[in-house]
């Protein structure tokens, strides 16, 4: 019997977790736009959240996730993902993953925003993502094919099923890769905004590919802005992890006033959306904010990556680190079921590309690497138990694929998204943005002619339209989606998802969404 053939688009934690959960006999090809290490996972500083401590429990982790998610999480998905995540963490420990330990040799646990207990496992201080990617790659060594500098341009849909992908290499040659299954693990769309924490390769590809192929895209209005990027003279230098606040860092203005005091009971460790809005509000009043790290001893040892970022920016940490919010994570994405299946047969989505229901309207800190590990493993388990579909036997047909490339500049797109679809949104600005996006002059370019930059702009433009329309439709504020003209969380919106497909946009009630939600962060 021939073994299953799978193409994975993307090379972050979700992709590698997926590949390492399959039998070695499967033919897995990971294609990635740049180097195999260019992914958002690589930059993840915070760590992996899991109810590891004796005094912790899955239920407590579930409650914190639901609290941060503002009543928009799928409670069944949350419980299942966190339960499976705990098992994966234990497996990583058994496999000697080098989690940081304390002086007694016990796994050390950090704290981040909206967690009621210390439950963040980290490695290399603030280099968890990089170390995890290296670990998974080493485990996969020789077992899978990794193709770098290749961009997925379009999914091949045959008889309503996904049968492979059309790709372009760095020399501009187009080819058609066929497979039994395609797995999208291409991250979110961080490059839609001026300041962000994402790799430059993260341009909404997974979302746009899935949308073009006929999948459902949901929750695009929920874009998470991390409160603290090091931003100096208008340039972003990198993330200042929430773990810094977990260890005693606090946000102050020039006078030394702690800006989170009195704003939220959890102060500096309030959920991310709350802290981002507070900083944004201060900045609108021309009040620059910095991270006071004076209460953290041994900063350089605990946060070596951040120390390097500060050095690169010429910042003396003892003077405070200048910070401002930036786009970090897309809670929405390709709508999937518990196994990562999309609405298109044989097409899966995992990691940030997918919307599993775990994060709701605002992701709890350090739940994303956990989700990447679990969603990768689950999709693999599902594919393993499916009968082979023999798709590969068919010949690859040449196709004439046409792209719509807007005649706009990336910088202008980013500026307009930041202003109108950023931390604070409002109807007229969103309407103007939507009009600008849909009125853009469009070039129709054949796949053979299109450059990678044009393809990326086309993907980002598609993602921008989905974010903007969703943000316009959701006339309430919830989690990371804040409308100044509808500042309250509205009961009538509870449990409702805005779902886009090529044929229509619908607002659908999701019965799985947490019904007992009674408070707002
Ligand atoms: C951080 O270190 O603050 C980011 C971690 C995360 O996004 O979960």
Automatic annotation (TrEMBL):
<dbReference type="GO" id="GO:0034628">
    <property type="term" value="P:'de novo' NAD+ biosynthetic process from L-aspartate"/>
</dbReference>
<dbReference type="Pfam" id="PF02910">
    <property type="entry name" value="Succ_DH_flav_C"/>
</dbReference>
<dbReference type="GO" id="GO:0033765">
    <property type="term" value="F:steroid dehydrogenase activity, acting on the CH-CH group of donors"/>
</dbReference>
<keyword id="KW-0560">Oxidoreductase</keyword>
<comment type="similarity">
    <text>Belongs to the FAD-dependent oxidoreductase 2 family. NadB subfamily.</text>
</comment>
<dbReference type="InterPro" id="IPR037099">
    <property type="entry name" value="Fum_R/Succ_DH_flav-like_C_sf"/>
</dbReference>
<dbReference type="InterPro" id="IPR027477">
    <property type="entry name" value="Succ_DH/fumarate_Rdtase_cat_sf"/>
</dbReference>
<feature type="domain" description="Fumarate reductase/succinate dehydrogenase flavoprotein-like C-terminal">
    <location>
        <begin position="411"/>
        <end position="501"/>
    </location>
</feature>
<dbReference type="GO" id="GO:0008734">
    <property type="term" value="F:L-aspartate oxidase activity"/>
</dbReference>
<dbReference type="InterPro" id="IPR003953">
    <property type="entry name" value="FAD-dep_OxRdtase_2_FAD-bd"/>
</dbReference>
<dbReference type="InterPro" id="IPR036188">
    <property type="entry name" value="FAD/NAD-bd_sf"/>
</dbReference>
<dbReference type="GO" id="GO:0005737">
    <property type="term" value="C:cytoplasm"/>
</dbReference>
<dbReference type="Pfam" id="PF00890">
    <property type="entry name" value="FAD_binding_2"/>
</dbReference>
<keyword id="KW-0274">FAD</keyword>
<dbReference type="InterPro" id="IPR005288">
    <property type="entry name" value="NadB"/>
</dbReference>
<dbReference type="InterPro" id="IPR015939">
    <property type="entry name" value="Fum_Rdtase/Succ_DH_flav-like_C"/>
</dbReference>
<protein>
    <recommendedName>
        <fullName>L-aspartate oxidase</fullName>
        <ecNumber>1.4.3.16</ecNumber>
    </recommendedName>
</protein>
<comment type="function">
    <text>Catalyzes the oxidation of L-aspartate to iminoaspartate.</text>
</comment>
<comment type="pathway">
    <text>Cofactor biosynthesis; NAD(+) biosynthesis; iminoaspartate from L-aspartate (oxidase route): step 1/1.</text>
</comment>
<feature type="domain" description="FAD-dependent oxidoreductase 2 FAD-binding">
    <location>
        <begin position="6"/>
        <end position="369"/>
    </location>
</feature>
<keyword id="KW-0285">Flavoprotein</keyword>
<keyword id="KW-0662">Pyridine nucleotide biosynthesis</keyword>
């Amino acid at each position: 019997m021939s073994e299953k053939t799978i193409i994975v688009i993307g090379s972050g934690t979700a992709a590698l977790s997926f590949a390492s959960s399959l039998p070695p006999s499967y033919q897995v090809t990971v294609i990635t736009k740049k180097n195999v290490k260019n992914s958002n996972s690589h930059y993840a500083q915070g760590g992996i959240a899991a109810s590891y401590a004796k005094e912790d429990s899955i239920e407590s982790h579930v409650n914190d996730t639901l609290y941060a998610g503002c009543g928009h999480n799928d409670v069944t998905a949350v419980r299942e993902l966190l339960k499976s995540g705990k098992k994966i963490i234990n497996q990583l420990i058994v496999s000697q993953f080098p989690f940081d330990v304390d002086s007694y040799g016990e796994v050390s646990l950090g704290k981040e925003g909206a967690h009621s207990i210390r439950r963040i496992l980290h490695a290399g201080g603030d280099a968890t993502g990089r170390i995890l990617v290296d670990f998974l790659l080493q485990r996969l060594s020789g077992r899978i094919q990794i193709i770098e500098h290749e961009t997925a341009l379009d999914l091949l849909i045959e008889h309503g099923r996904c049968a492979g992908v059309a790709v372009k290499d760095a020399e501009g040659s187009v080819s058609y890769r066929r497979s039994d299954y395609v797995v999208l693990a291409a991250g979110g769309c961080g490059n839609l905004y001026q300041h962000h924490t994402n790799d430059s390769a993260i341009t909404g590809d997974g979302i746009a590919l899935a949308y073009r192929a006929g999948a459902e895209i949901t929750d695009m209005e929920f874009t998470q802005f991390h409160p603290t990027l090091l931003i100096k003279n208008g340039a972003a230098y990198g993330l200042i992890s929430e773990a810094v606040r977990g260890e005693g860092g606090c946000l102050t203005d020039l006078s030394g006033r702690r800006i989170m005091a009195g704003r939220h009971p959890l102060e500096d460790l309030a959920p991310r959306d709350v802290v981002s809005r507070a900083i944004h509000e201060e900045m609108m009043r021309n009040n620059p904010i910095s991270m006071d790290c004076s209460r953290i001893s041994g900063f350089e040892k605990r946060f070596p990556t951040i120390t390097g970022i500060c050095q690169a920016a010429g910042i003396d940490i003892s003077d405070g680190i200048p910070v401002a919010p930036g786009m970090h994570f897309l809670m929405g994405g390709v709508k999937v079921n518990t196994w990562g299946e999309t609405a298109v047969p044989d097409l899966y989505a995992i990691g940030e590309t997918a919307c599993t229901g775990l994060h709701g309207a605002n992701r709890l800190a350090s739940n994303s690497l956990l989700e990447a590990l679990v969603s990768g493993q689950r999709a693999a388990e599902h594919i393993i138990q499916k009968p082979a579909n023999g798709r590969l036997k068919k010949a690859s047909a040449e196709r004439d694929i046409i792209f719509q490339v807007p005649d706009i500049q990336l910088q202008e797109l980013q500026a307009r998204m930041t202003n109108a679809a950023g931390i604070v949104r409002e109807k007229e600005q969103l309407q103007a943005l939507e009009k600008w996006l849909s009125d853009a002059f469009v070039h129709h370019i054949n796949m053979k002619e299109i450059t990678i930059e044009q393809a990326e702009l086309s993907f980002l433009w598609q993602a921008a339209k989905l974010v903007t329309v969703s943000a316009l439709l959701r006339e309430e504020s919830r989690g990371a989606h804040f409308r100044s003209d509808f500042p309250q969380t509205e009961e009538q919106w509870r449990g409702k998802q805005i779902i886009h497909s090529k044929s229509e946009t619908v607002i659908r009630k999701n019965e799985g969404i947490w019904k007992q939600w009674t408070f707002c962060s």
